[in-house]
Write a structure and sequence with these properties.
- The structure is a single chain.
- By secondary structure, the chain is an alpha+beta fold.
- The chain has 9 helices and 17 strands.
- Strand 9 and strand 10 form a beta hairpin.
- Helix 1 crosses helix 2 and helix 3 runs parallel beside helix 4.
- The longest helix has 18 residues.
- The protein is globular and about 70 Å long.
- The mean pLDDT is about 95.
């Protein structure tokens, strides 16, 4: 069993609190109930120009209670774990339910779909990091950045954070599950200067297991190198060109796919992928898989927010969309069955190609390598996409110069269909894993 001694409440106490809530809800006439009990804590430090800028500690707990009175739903929450507070929160949720409109799709997921087991996915790895150690690590990160290049003249700070949490989810159909988890990160943001020009860039590493984090000094050097490389940025002539999204940004394209293929957008008819199930949405070589049970995965979980068991599945096969991302509620709204995605996707992985970033740059020949995006100009109803960008102009398969103050625009449907290649330079930083993605054509607006 993972070491959970640092938590204020034993896991068994969270289970008992959940049972108490379910029992009280039933006694008050709720036809169904679901409850989430959680506790978390952590610390973060930031060092800027070798001085300690912030030290933050956090510890929180909470209980969220959803009750159903027939097809009416009410929700209330509290951070007070006393018996009286639990009773009052259940009653508050029931009072809310009595005043809400009936919804034929409201209710718990089917009992047969609930997770029966909760396998250990190795998600909890405490980091025995004192404040002094965290400060020393952040300083080492920032010092390595300053030492990397004389043009690094200032810093936005280096940060070290460690977080732990555990929770229990339960409902009146007999489901109860939960587990502890952790997540740690080291980040650095540096400013490079040359004559009157200044540029900033950053880098970070994150993992559930602190032993798997990149070395802090390496993070600092990477942040410095990226900031220096952007010096001398200029605009480019407006036109249509291939665009290569660096791996950390390419994960955002996967996120756009998930959003458009999610039940909430679909039943509201606010998605450009409406009625696209079973249709080709990407080139034939693209394969996207969901793997919820990867040990130590940042998106791993044995069940979703409805308590439904998660499972491996292929979301895109040979470019064809095989499945949506549905919760119990959105599935009912669409007349379908939940996919175990209440709360989002779980380790969505696009199969990498054979080329690294340098290989993709060479294949692109001439176009734009994007390393930073600004703004949120995405219309998911039409798929229209327009965002501020920065990166590098590529000529003859090589980076020619940095680019800034430009906009890239296109349509997500066309962008997904126009993927030319996926790189093998995968950065695992969240629930979506992909290498850099080369898109055949977008409008690049500059001069």
């Amino acid at each position: 069993m993972p070491d959970t001694a640092a938590f204020s409440y034993p896991f068994a106490t969270l289970q008992q609190l959940a049972e108490d809530v379910l029992k009280h809800a039933a006694g008050k006439g709720a036809t169904a109930c679901e409850v989430d009990v959680s506790e978390g804590f952590g610390q973060s430090v930031t060092v800027r120009c070798d001085e300690v800028e912030t030290i933050e500690f956090n510890r929180d707990k909470g209980i969220g209670i959803t009750v159903y009175a027939g097809q009416r739903k009410g929700y209330a929450s509290t951070s007070d774990f006393s018996a009286q507070a639990l009773r009052e929160t259940v009653e508050a949720a029931l009072d809310i339910a009595r005043f809400t409109a009936e919804d034929a799709c409201a209710g718990l997921a089917d009992a047969a779909l609930m997770a029966k087991q909760c396998p250990d996915l190795d998600l909890h790895h405490p980091w025995a990091l004192t404040v002094e150690d965290a400060i020393a690590t952040a300083r080492r990160c920032e010092q390595a950045a300053f030492a990397a290049d004389p043009r690094i003249g200032n810093s936005e700070g280096a940060s070290v954070s460690t977080q732990q949490a555990h929770f229990v989810s339960a409902n009146s159909l007999g489901f109860m599950g939960g587990y502890p988890s952790s997540r740690h990160y080291v980040s650095c943001s540096m400013i490079a200067g040359e004559q009157d020009a200044m540029q900033r860039d950053d880098w970070y590493t994150t993992h559930r297991n602190p032993a798997c984090l990149e070395d802090a000094a390496a993070v600092g050097r990477k942040a410095a190198e990226r900031a220096v490389a952007r010096l001398g940025g200029r605009k480019v002539k407006t036109g249509e060109f291939p665009v290569l999204f660096e791996a950390p940004l390419a994960a955002g394209l996967l996120g756009s796919l998930v959003h458009a293929a999610s039940g909430g957008a679909l039943y509201r008819k606010s998605s450009f992928l409406l009625d696209h199930l079973g249709k080709r949405v990407m080139p034939e070589f693209v394969q996207i898989r969901e793997r919820p049970h990867i040990p130590q995965g940042l998106g791993s979980s044995p069940f979703d927010n409805d308590g439904v068991a998660t499972r491996d599945r292929d979301v895109v096969v040979d470019g064809v969309l095989q499945g949506y991302f549905l919760s119990a509620y959105t599935a009912r709204k669409l007349g379908m069955q939940t996919t175990g995605n209440a709360g989002g996707s779980h380790n969505l992985i696009i199969e990498p190609g054979e080329l690294d970033l340098a290989g993709l740059v060479k294949r692109m020949g001439r176009g734009l390598l994007v390393t930073e995006l600004l703004g949120h100009g995405i219309n998911y109803v039409t798929g229209d996409y327009s965002r501020g960008a920065a990166g590098y102009w590529v000529e003859n398969g090589e980076i020619a110069y940095p680019v800034e103050e430009i906009t890239i625009a296109g349509n997500l449907k066309a962008m997904l269909a126009g993927i030319v290649a996926v790189g093998n330079d995968v950065q695992v930083r969240g629930t979506k894993q992909t290498g850099s993605i080369l898109v055949d054509r977008m409008t690049v607006a500059g001069d």
